[in-house]
């Protein structure tokens, strides 16, 4: 059925609002992840400890896992714009406190891995970054509100492009700012950008008709009701668990990639390299924005994962910046397809009034395994893999002739083993009945009505719960 002139005008206004919010989220994403990258760079350069950076990564992942469901409930139970504003305000408070600590504490304090002041400083900064995750959960629900169903995959591609732009800017400026003044300029810029983003957000009008409270459901976290929705959609829980396993392996990269890169080049060069590589993220997002994801995003998601794990096996085989750059560029190019596919599927098959909680649930579950990896892999790399590949180590004697020897080769071996495990797991998941069930459900689902959300009972009649 063709849309009326009024409907077309409403769609245009909603899309304009989507672009405003996308730009606002881009600014806050840039600054929050600049802070995160800067923390890792700063701590590693001050302490020279892989163990410290892996523990810090684990803290980040634990906090992300523990807050996802809660953040999702907040997004569903309050106006999305309100929660975005609060997200920035909380981050700003943490950054102000940390700026004061940084100004008052002697610089030598941050060189000692056992310093209480160091850990208070980095943990508070991490909490400030974590508060920004509220925006990450609100974002996909706003796509559902503001973008027509047949264009959501392309809108999710634009979100991927924004993430790529964010990563480009973040990668470049975080290294430069840390090299220029430690955390001083990082925190100064963070406070300024968050203030400006909050001021801009205050003047953006979002057409939210109200908050749907489902009868009998908790107005707090409502994990039980959310889980009921997830398990009732064939294949959705399997997809979340698959992403969880991928993140279990992905914790390796979060914990070790910066240490690996910084063992091969300076912090400024490493930051600029990631700035260039993030162009892949931008290109991938633009391709999706132009062409979409095809008729079956579920199968596309698994296919892309197969390619990524093959790349993960290949790029560390030699100690080469070129191989690392090529591998990471391919990774950055393809990751937007995975993220956009998962979001597009959930936006279509999950009832709107539950989307914040389901996105938050997915974030919590998918991140739950990564902290274990991040906490374990640092000590494992430092105590086993690095000595294993140093001159005289068993691994150096066994494969050092062609693989190379040294600390960076120990880290590289971790990446290769991770890639092999990930490839095997993805091939098994791709051939499973759950992938076929979710594909069939996506293709059979009707569009979610974002402006008149169905009740839980209506969703049940449609087979959604």
Description:
The structure is a single chain. Helix 9 (236-262) packs parallel to helix 15. The longest helix has 43 residues, at 5-47. The protein has a single domain (11-203, 223-461), classed as Growth Hormone, Chain: A (Up-down Bundle). It has helices spanning 5-47, 50-77, 80-104, 116-131, 133-146, 152-181, 184-202, 223-232, 236-262, 267-277, 279-291, 297-314, 321-349, 355-368, 370-389, 394-403, 407-430, 433-444, 456-461. It is built from 19 helices and no strands. By secondary structure, the protein is mainly α. The relative contact order is 0.15.
Using brief descriptors, characterize the structure shown:
mainly alpha, Growth Hormone, Chain: A, single chain, 465 residues, disordered C terminus, globular
What is the tally of helical segments? 19
What's the helix-strand series?
HHHHHHHHHHHHHHHHHHH
Q: Determine the CATH topology.
A: Growth Hormone, Chain: A
- The CATH first-level class comes to Mainly Alpha
Task: Name the structural class.
Answer: mainly alpha
The profile of the biggest β sheet is: none
**Over the alpha carbons, how many angstroms does the gyration radius reach?**
22 Å
In terms of DSSP E residues, the strand content is under 5%
Poorly predicted residue ranges:
212-218, 446-465
CATH superfamily name?
MFS general substrate transporter like domains
Given the C-alpha coordinates, what overall shape results?
globular
The chain-level mean pLDDT equals: 79
What's the count of strands?
Answer: 0
Classify the helix fraction into a percent range: over 70%
Q: Per CATH, which architecture?
A: Up-down Bundle
